[in-house]
Design a protein that fits this description.
This protein is α+β, with helices and mostly antiparallel strands and 427 residues long. It has helices spanning 30-37, 54-65, 103-112, 136-142, 150-155, 158-170, 176-185, 194-205, 211-219, 232-251, 253-259, 271-280, 285-294, 299-316, 322-332, 336-345, 350-361, 376-383, 389-403, 410-422, and strands spanning 26-28, 44-50, 68-73, 78-83, 86-92, 122-124, 129-131, 144-145, 173-174, 262-264, 267-270. Helices cover 52% and strands 11% of the residues. The longest helix has 20 residues, at 232-251.
């Protein structure tokens, strides 16, 4: 591996000038690892360690560039500066200044406290020097994750889960002794806040590369405390979901594109991730909702999984009347893509749900995407009735009659609603 100056780490690519950093200063962690691997990043995420005054340096940079400033840990002197397209964290070296002769010695102490050798490589932007006391560059070449020590993993048990996530993202394997240590320390994962576990899991749920590592994490006891109802069969279903997603994407590229999209701009979980999450929780929607709430998932994510579980039985037996299809699509909304993948993964023939997929992907289809012939206000004025839940019922019946071909104009809709009012048993 070429350990020359990685261009990704070059100060000319930073959102601030090198002049603001004292000498020496070091970039450490994932940014160095990815630069040496030649991995590009859309969003630059830099971690600096400084001999002293880390918070003061961070605050000065934030003030000069009018960037965001966050004090992460005043005692350990850690701060973050947030730019529009980059984040820079600044931390003070952990080695005791009184007991070590040089910043280089303190840096080495800091690197020895990290999780894996590939994340314990430092880069000095002033001298363009790579510092690699644990030979992480060799493990980068061999594409392997190797722990620095079991004690380091136990100090922050989230590192146990992070091993699987990083292996998935980097396409690495986990070194056998490291794997054994993770298994032996698995019970410590309960010391980690559920939301931190959820974030690591989210990266692995997003694509097929993460599936084998989710399976390994479950087999090694890391996921069991958080997904108490997951079984070997339900975990094995994750790979089947990936295969179903690939199969549907080959036929309907638009549907495949939806599966890779985040369910909200502010939530990274994809629709494919929602389908996989539905495999890990209890099939009963009410219990699944409790599980996901305990894991601190957002309301949007919980609603998506619960909706998928509730509607899945209908799509597994897709012989629905137009009326049933209308109510199905009304409830499914954007969750449809996840439900479709789950249905195929559970054995539903693609041909059986193809008509429903075609409806969903056609914006002009009135069953999946109804266009109201008139508003509730128009009904109230035309029939001289007050606002009440009855208006919603009338609008629903009008929509169903429209897709059944019984009416097509606003005038026909008013006449139809008037007829329903005279016979309230139909509502």
């Amino acid at each position: 591996m070429d350990c020359s100056v990685p261009s990704l780490l070059s100060p000319e690519n930073w959102p601030f000038s090198l002049e603001f950093l004292p000498q020496p200063a070091y970039i450490v962690g994932g940014a160095v690892r990815d630069a040496l691997l030649g991995r590009t990043r859309e969003y630059l995420d830099l971690d600096f360690v400084l001999p002293s005054k880390a918070v003061k340096v961070a605050r000065k940079i934030a003030t000069h560039y009018k960037a965001g400033f966050v004090l992460l840990d005043s005692e350990r002197q850690i701060a973050r500066v947030v730019f529009p397209h980059a984040t820079a964290d600044f931390a003070q070296m952990e080695g005791d200044k009184l007991n070590f002769k040089s910043p280089a010695s303190r840096l080495e102490t800091d690197l020895h406290r990290r999780d894996f050798t590939v994340n314990a490589i430092a880069y000095n932007p002033h001298t363009q020097e790579i510092i690699d006391p644990l030979q992480g560059s060799i493990d980068l070449q061999q594409r392997v994750l190797r722990m620095i020590s079991p004690a380091n993993l136990q100090d922050d048990p989230l590192r146990l889960m992070r091993a699987y996530r990083q292996a998935a993202q980097l396409g690495f394997t986990i070194e056998p002794n490291t794997q054994a240590a993770i298994r032996s320390l698995a019970s410590h994962i309960t010391e980690v806040a559920p939301e931190r576990v959820r974030v690591e899991l989210g990266y692995m749920l997003a694509n097929s590369q993460g599936t084998p590592w989710i399976t390994r994490a479950w087999e090694d006891g890391l996921l069991n405390p958080f997904f108490k109802y997951a079984t070997q069969e339900s975990v094995a279903l994750l790979a089947v979901v990936d295969k179903a997603a690939s199969q549907l994407t080959e036929i309907w590229q638009q549907l495949g594109g939806e599966l890779t999209q985040s369910i909200r701009d502010t939530i990274k979980t994809t629709w494919l991730g929602i389908a996989k999450l539905a495999c890990l929780v209890k099939a009963e929607p009410e219990i699944a909702e409790i599980e996901l709430t305990e894991l601190t998932y957002s309301r949007a994510e919980i609603k998506a999984v619960v909706t998928a579980l509730r509607l899945l039985p209908q799509l597994k037996a897709p012989l629905m009347s137009l009326r049933e299809q209308y109510f199905f699509f009304q409830e499914a909304g954007f969750v449809f893509s996840a439900i479709a993948v789950l249905a195929v993964a559970h054995g539903t023939l693609v041909e059986a749900i193809a008509p429903l997929i075609a409806r969903y992907l056609n914006p002009d289809d009135l069953v999946a995407h109804p266009t109201p012939l008139l508003s509730g206000k128009a009904i109230m004025l035309a029939l001289n009735i007050p606002a009440s839940p009855l208006i919603g019922k009338l609008l629903t019946e009008i929509a169903v009659a429209q897709i059944e071909g019984k009416l097509s104009t606003a005038e026909e809709a008013i006449e139809f609603a008037s007829g329903l009012l005279s016979s309230e048993n139909d509502l």
